[in-house]
Design a protein that fits this description.
The protein is α/β, with parallel strands linked by helices and 201 residues long. It has two domains: 124 residues, Dna-directed Rna Polymerases I, Ii, And Iii 27 Kd Polypeptide, Chain: A, domain 1, CATH 3.40.1340.10; 63 residues, Eukaryotic RPB6 RNA polymerase subunit, CATH 3.90.940.20. The chain is 31% helix and 28% strand. The protein contains five helices and nine strands. A five-stranded mixed sheet has the order 1-2-3-5-4. A hairpin with a 2-residue loop joins strand 4 and strand 5. Helix 1 crosses helix 2. The protein is globular. It is found in: Nucleus. It comes from Giardia intestinalis. One of its GO terms (biological process) is tRNA transcription by RNA polymerase III. One of its GO terms (molecular function) is DNA binding.
Length: 201
């Protein structure tokens, strides 16, 4: 595998781990793999890549276990084989990242395979962490208790809160769901810190 491909896998691996950490998943030893170099990732997956097998691992959040699978198989072979990976562990969700290069129309897809929610993405979707951009403010998904408290303090209903789509890149990063209340914290040297709220739909 060439150095560019290994660099892509290394970058994707770090970004995916950061995403699940930000979603509140338990990372355990995987946290130490954030920021691995292409050479280190090459050693980590050498046997898998040589044999065209996917690299995969499990992250958990309470009772929810998610399998993350990286595959360099061609798209047709990879999509047909997903079922065998989700069946190997008792998981409820699966993120399947492929490096095989299908048509652009197949870059993102959501399926349910053997009762497992599977999100399928081309690796280019995970080359950067959008939350690290200097112009992106901090977003926080509030708990139901916090949501009720904020609505009471502001004396508003959900219908009066400005909306934000679940397809927004930051909402996708945090896996926000319709009905989630999002707190956005903006800071500036002149105006200080300000809080804004958006309702996900």
């Amino acid at each position: 595998m060439d150095s560019l491909a290994l660099d892509h896998i290394a970058r994707v691996h770090t970004v995916v781990l950061e995403m699940y950490r930000d979603r509140g998943y338990e990372m355990g030893p995987l946290e130490k793999q954030m920021g691995l170099s292409a050479e280190e990732v090459g050693r980590l997956i050498d046997d898998n890549v040589t044999n065209l097998r996917p690299l995969w691992f499990i992250v958990t959040k309470g009772p929810v276990a998610t399998a993350v699978v990286y595959s360099i198989l061609p798209w047709v072979d990879a999509s047909a084989a997903i079922g065998q990976y989700v069946d190997q562990e008792a998981v409820q969700k699966c993120l399947f990242v492929y490096f095989g290069g299908p048509a652009a129309s197949c870059r993102s897809e959501h399926r349910v395979i053997n009762d497992v929610e599977v999100d399928i993405h081309d690796f280019s979707q995970f080359l950067i962490n959008p939350t690290k951009h200097r112009l992106v403010p901090k977003h926080t998904i509030l708990s139901n208790t916090e949501k009720a408290r904020v609505l009471a303090e502001l004396r508003v209903t959900e219908a009066q809160i400005p909306l934000i789509q679940t397809s927004d890149p930051i909402m996708r990063w945090y896996d926000a769901k319709p009905g989630d209340l999002i707190r956005i914290t903006r800071t500036s040297g002149s105006a200080g810190k300000h809080l804004y709220y958006r309702l996900c739909y």
